[in-house]
Amino acid sequence: MEVSLELGAPQGASKCFDDDGRLKRTGTLWTASAHIITAVIGSGVLSLAWAIGQLGWVAGPIAMLLFSFVTYYTSALLADCYRSGDPNTGKRNYTYMDTVRANLDGFKVKLCGYLQYLNIVGVAIGYTIAASISMVAIERSNCFHKNGDDSPCQVNSNPYMIMFGVAEIIFSQIPDFDQIWWLSIVAAVMSFTYSSIGLSLGIVQVIKNGGVRGSLTGISIGTVSEMDKIWRSLQAFGDIAFAYSYSIILIEIQDTIRAPPPSEAKVMKRATLISVAVTTVFYMLCGCMGYAAFGDMAPGNLLTGFGFYNPYWLLDIANVAIVVHLVGAYQVYCQPLFAFVEKWALETWPRSQFIGKEIQVPLPARRSYKLNLFRLIWRTTFVVISTVVSMLLPFFNDVVGLLGAIGFWPLTVYFPVEMYIVQKKVARWSTRWVCLQLLSLACLAITIASAAGSIAGVVSDLKVYRPFKAS
Asked: Which regions span the lipid bilayer (predicted)?
């Protein structure tokens, strides 16, 4: 799994090329922020009202603030590892795996690779499920509006997963990460759209209820069993972790930023601060207002809690925005995996015409598209497989919690901390070293607990689930 991605490069930079011989990067603070917001404000925001509902008014917001701080802090540590040595002229590390390879040993490189790409596969599955839920909600909403509130309006989500998969097959043919900046901006706008609608509907529901619902400790024992209360609380941590998860693609985003000055690390830290601050405000508003509106009955997907009735058109707009956002977010997450497999294949079979040859396909306005047959077949196969798996396991809330739990500690905390210690030569048993290790251990405990809660939720769902059945 260890693949060197470094290309031979001329010394110094020119008007057309950066210091590593690659075409000049054009990313800015704002394009990096758009990528991050697209990745962070994903479908996870819709589960936050449910998560706060399990933890209550005290632990819920505190947990959200802690996760935001940890995510920002460890992302800043990771950003410092993009270049080895001098932050302006040191050797670039193009991917998360390259960064680990430059600072840690071979086993950890392989472990990082497996975890990163497994998490990306999981995100692809989770986003496919979330998109289908929104498309089903649109059809059911229109069905109720047309046929009356008592109509059964059963809808099978599988055709919608297939439609989403077809869209991803098309967009997955965009060759490189730096060419999807426009898709990230559209997706970021969509994320604010549906988050704002969810927030507004929550405010209206609170006014309609005549007050704020919920309790200091969350859903009460009696409404659920004592054991369920424990599992649900643990799963809530996983849902919050998933809502902040983007470290697995941080280095790939940073590699799109134009060359210094200022250094890529400084730009990335500012982009992270802006993005995490903005998303945390949205998360707090949406999560807390959702809990205030529904109390212990806060749904796993906030928008479904408002029913499928009036204002049905507003809910339709929100769900369309979710689908458009997830189309872009899917690509932001999967591009690093696509690039890794293609570079590995090219280095393994450098003379293969099937892998290396690009066919010029003419487009309007004197443009052309470079069609690569291996890219076409491999990326299409990936999307098809992830779509089929999504059709077999459509458990949005539990899948979200499990993905957040699996990826949070190793990729968001452990590797950034360990690499920073090596890169900055932090002395063992110094105050900084001890604090970093305590942070890592605390996050490990949260990851294990969250994973246990989410697995319990999936097992519970599997007992009553029937594949391919309309709901």
From this structure: 29-52, 58-82, 117-138, 180-204, 271-292, 312-333, 376-396, 402-422, 434-459
Q: Is the pTM of this model over 0.85?
A: no
How many structural domains are present in the chain? 1
pLDDT one-digit tens code per residue, 348-398: 998 888 888 888 877 776 777 778 899 999 999 999 999 998 888 766 556
Contacts of 279 (CB under 8 A, 6+ apart): 37, 40, 41, 68, 244
Taking only Cα atoms into account, the Rg of the chain, rounded to an integer number of angstroms, comes to: 22
CA distance 316 to 433: 50
Q: Would you say residue 234 lies in a domain?
A: yes
CA-to-CA dists, residue 263 to 260, 270, 332, 456, angstroms: 5, 11, 23, 45
Structural domain boundaries, residue 178: 29-464
Closest C-alpha to 397, from 126, 157, 132: 126
Q: What's the gap between Cα 223 and its chain centre?
A: 32
For the segment 300-347, what is each residue's pLDDT rounded down to a tens digit? 777 766 665 557 788 888 889 889 988 988 888 888 899 889 989 999
- Cα–Cα dist 337/32, whole Å: 19
Residues sharing a CB contact under 8 Å with residue 303, sequence separation 6 or more, in sequence order: 46, 134, 137, 194, 197, 198, 201, 315, 318, 319, 322
Residue with tokens 């932001």: 332
